Amino acid sequence: MDTLDLPRHDLRSTALEVLRARGYIHQCTDLGGLDAAFAAGVVPVYIGFDATADSLHVGHLLPIMTLRRLQRAGHKPIVLMGGGTTRVGDPSFRATERPLLSDDQIAANIRGIRRVFERFLTFGNGPIDAVMVNNADWLDRLGYIDLLRDVGRHFSVNRMLSFDSVKARLDRQDPMTFLEFNYMILQAFDFLELHRRAGCLAQMGGSDQWGNIVNGIDLVRRIEGREVFGLTTPLLTTASGAKMGKTAGGAVWLNADRLSPYDYWQFWRNADDADVGRFLRLFTDLPLDRIAELEALPGAAINQAKVALADAATTLAHGTDAAQAARDTAGQAFAGAVADGLPDVALTAAEVRDGGALVVDLLVRAGLATSKGEARRLILGGGVRTDGRVVADTDARITQAAVPIRLSLGRKRHVRVCGV
């Protein structure tokens, strides 16, 4: 079901009404049936996350916030960690096979990801408390012949080849291994197992997971004879068309040891004007009427809405104190001070010995530019400053005697250059 069909439904459940009003719904296998289930009582809902890194990033934030909304509406979030499926790698819309990780790497990544969810969800033993489970608990015990006989017979290869995620890979003539091709069977089995173990009635995920979700629904119906549901969130891009969560410096991580709260705050503060209202609805808990006021601010006043977005989003991810500190640091940097809270980029001993570091190198090291070529173009365009003074020379250096000094790209992105 496409979102264009949604206005024809008179929703009864708070959960789906909130998801619809804030822009979370892209497709649903049976909106009326899911709405009735939500209205009838507590519904266990799961979203799966593979443990490919020790933190999630802003690209994962939409499903995380979906679980947060559902818990606040009185339902039970199940966070499924792919301890088993991470060994395979989801091939959906990927051009190449994902590198395989060791069991120790996967376990360490799950510990890091757990810290993310503890800030967005309430865990415990209550009826709507979130739980985190690991599909290695059941996938590791699967016998290959048993899987083929009990699960594999319910899957049509013709249908599996018809899913967009697979077709896109094959149309580009990018190879897909047999290991990757089995991923959708394992994900479908996850839904079956969670339905059996926890009474899970719905799987949610990004729009790229639609085929995998439908497979799981079919498997539960064929084996258990029960109706379960699937819902996807929209593919999220910025107003400029860029993939959400990617910057010149790389992924916008949700753990502070991967990305400082200041840099996280700045990511939201630098949102495009056209994205502010949508991001406020999706990524903050601010009431809709307050969001309507903020996105209606005229002209330069929209910056107030961006600060509100940055404050609210950073508070969710890092806490009130971190958000306030990031905002204070940003204010000091804007006023021209070398603020203590700015991210540091240090001169190396070799650079000190050789008379300083090239600004070009520091821009790349700080994540303000993706390459030396881009850094030179930024300098030639007049966008780079040290302590408010324009850097005009692409061979300019910062010496040990000059630090600490504020290195800026434009008016909003700053780092503190310090000594060895």
Automatic annotation (TrEMBL):
Coordinates of motif 'HIGH' region in the sequence? 51-60
At which positions is L-tyrosine bound?
46, 183, 187
Q: GO CC terms for this protein?
A: cytosol
- EC number(s) given by UniProt: 6.1.1.1
Give its localization.
Cytoplasm
Motif mapping: 'KMSKS' region: 243-247
- The residues the record assigns to binding ATP are 246
UniProt domain RNA-binding S4: residue ranges: 361-394
Enzyme class per UniProt: ligase
Q: Which reaction does it catalyse?
A: tRNA(Tyr) + L-tyrosine + ATP = L-tyrosyl-tRNA(Tyr) + AMP + diphosphate + H(+)
Q: Which InterPro entries match?
A: aa-tRNA-synth_Ic, Rossmann-like_a/b/a_fold, S4_RNA-bd, S4_RNA-bd_sf, Tyr-tRNA-ligase, Tyr-tRNA-ligase_bac-type, Tyr-tRNA-ligase_bac_1
**Taking the first listed entry, what is the main subcellular location of this protein, grouped into a coarse class?**
cytoplasm
Keyword tags = Aminoacyl-tRNA synthetase, ATP-binding, Cytoplasm, Ligase, Nucleotide-binding, Protein biosynthesis, RNA-binding
Q: What does this protein do?
A: Catalyzes the attachment of tyrosine to tRNA(Tyr) in a two-step reaction: tyrosine is first activated by ATP to form Tyr-AMP and then transferred to the acceptor end of tRNA(Tyr).
- So what family is this one in? Belongs to the class-I aminoacyl-tRNA synthetase family. TyrS type 1 subfamily.
Subunit description? Homodimer.
HAMAP family, sorted = Tyr_tRNA_synth_type1 (MF_02006)
What's the protein called, per UniProt?
A: Tyrosine--tRNA ligase
List the taxonomic lineage.
Answer: Bacteria, Pseudomonadati, Pseudomonadota, Alphaproteobacteria, Rhodospirillales
